[in-house]
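pls design
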């Protein structure tokens, strides 16, 4: 029997900012991440991406509890960020689960009207095993990355 792996969740869009600002706003995830997307029992107070390869990616609960989400593999401001997403199908951290997120920031336009093309990819979804297709659909939905990235893009609207 052949198992067909799901395609990565991919989104590409443009924001009205240069790559430096787009990258900085993206990694300041607590500014735009939807608090409803929290794994902290007390609710979300902040989301942190430590600015270095090997850094942690985590949520801080309102009670101060740290809830790990993953880790930073590549941190190359202002052009590229690669992270491990280790949240299971039960929305809890599993250090053995290693799906990967890559975000690139590419300058477009002229200096007077600079914008940045943001390319997002969440891959290796076959790590979810029998639930890979369901997780791919959920992660790619309006309630998943589509909605979350819309919140990020909204940070640049006039």
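designed seq:
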């Amino acid at each position: 029997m052949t198992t067909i792996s799901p395609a990565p969740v991919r989104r590409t869009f443009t924001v009205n900012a240069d790559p430096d600002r787009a990258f900085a706003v993206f990694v300041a995830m607590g500014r735009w991440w939807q608090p409803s997307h929290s794994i902290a029992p007390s609710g979300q107070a902040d989301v942190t991406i430590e600015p270095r390869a090997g850094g942690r990616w985590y949520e801080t609960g309102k009670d101060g509890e740290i809830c790990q989400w993953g880790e930073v593999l590549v941190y190359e401001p202002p052009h590229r960020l690669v992270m491990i997403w280790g949240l299971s199908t039960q929305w809890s951290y599993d250090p053995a689960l290693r799906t990967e997120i890559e975000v690139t920031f590419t300058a477009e336009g002229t200096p007077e009207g600079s914008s940045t093309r943001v390319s997002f990819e969440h891959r290796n979804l076959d790590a979810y095993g029998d639930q890979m297709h369901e997780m791919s659909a959920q992660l790619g939905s309006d309630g998943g990355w589509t909605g979350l990235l819309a919140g990020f893009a909204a940070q640049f609207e006039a």
